[in-house]
Design goal:
The protein is mainly alpha-helical. It has helices spanning 3-15, 32-42, 57-65, 79-91, 97-105, 111-137, 142-176. The protein is 66% helix and 0% strand. The model has no long low-confidence stretch (mean pLDDT 90).
Length: 178
Amino acid sequence: MNAIEKITSWAEEGKQLSPPDWEQLPTIPLYVDQVLLYLRDTLRFFERDEDDVLLTNSMINNYVKNGVLPHPEKKKYNRAHLAELVTICMLKQVLAIQDIRTLLRSEGLTEEMYGSFLAAHTGAVRETCAALAESCANGEDLRRAALRLAAEANAKRAAAERILKELGEEEQRGSAAP
């Protein structure tokens, strides 16, 4: 299979992508090893290759230590933790951890906010994959397609970072007020 065939296959898979919504997340609390297995399977589409790992035990510990993720309850992670970890894994590809903390910690990741994130993320992935599959079918140069996608991602990352910078500063000013 050549590069165009592999990319087309990946894009076709992405057009059908449906990460778990809140109700599809496990209802019983999981130990960290179970969380890692569950999320590895759930997020495998976003790994660069089979050797890439989006989440490790050390990463989870650091997220908890740095206030990005709430502490587990009796060493177990519940549905809300899993939703936050799915979100963190997706966002850490484009945002600094401090920005993710600003985004998630003000009120925590609610079921509604997770749903909004999933809808936006899934829509963006499907739209991107549909356009990529079409580009491959039309014979577009893959390097040009990658350059275009990277430029679009960079512009959107910069906008999100600016918003989160301003929100973070506003929250700091609010907490410093007498």
